[in-house]
Amino acid sequence: MKKKLLSVLWVFLLAFSSNILYSQISKSIVDTTKQWNILETYQNTQEFKKFTHLYRVSSEDTIINNKTYLRLEKKANYDTNANDNWEKHNWIREDSNKVYIFTYSNTVSNSIQYSYPREYLLFDFNLGLNDTFHITCEENEAYSDPLVVSFIDSIEIENQYYRRILFNEGYPQYSLLGTYWIEGIGSNGDFINHYNHLHSHWDLMCVYRNNNLIFDGGFGYCYIQQGLDGHEPEECSLKIYPTIVNDILNIDTELRIYKIIIHDIYGRSVLEENLNNTKTINCKGFKSGIYDCLLITKDNILISRKFIKN
Question: What is the pLDDT at residue 236?
């Protein structure tokens, strides 16, 4: 009997200590210790460019309509050699697991003209399965239909579990193909935008807390590095196939590829090797899921392609 009571007490203490540890990790998005690195990929018929934009929440605050906001700042087209020049972007606050933006800019969403200044809801982490979320924050046309919660799970960050919400038939195994939110992290797209424009696509690459990486979006890098500027030549016709791989991944290109790096959905490197004119990669030992294939040319151009391992 004593052993049973001791066992129950031990389990209770473990659970209690876990809750204390859990509470020590802030899951707030409005956090002045964090930085978000966003990849913008711009492509039209004449050019292909990649930029890294940074977001942070500054300690500058203000009161609007009796609500306290902090300043959301952005550094556009970041370069490691650029001056520390942050632009004042919008105001942001968090309340009851919801994140709000206050803007002085005109916005149009779903054919509705929104006058400024106004507040809009950016994230709502109280959503449940099949709940809907109407986007009203975009500066251009957004979805005509609302986001619909299709799956809810959690992922491990800093030895704690953070809630993840996937939308519009998104599932964890193929989450990169759709929209998802993570509490304390944000959207897998731009920090402000939930969708992609005609010529631009946004992806969350990395999130830092106190300059320490806490979330990796699976790109294998957190900004476009010097010499790997992400500019893909107009005539580039590099293809990898099949899109859903069983064993062998084929590379079809006339470019001189000298190195390949493959990361899984969590940003972990599963393969890194020099190609030496080899145009096939054996993926038989990979686990099922989405992978990011980074190919580096002899001219130091970085090209990214995604594939799914069956």
Answer: 53
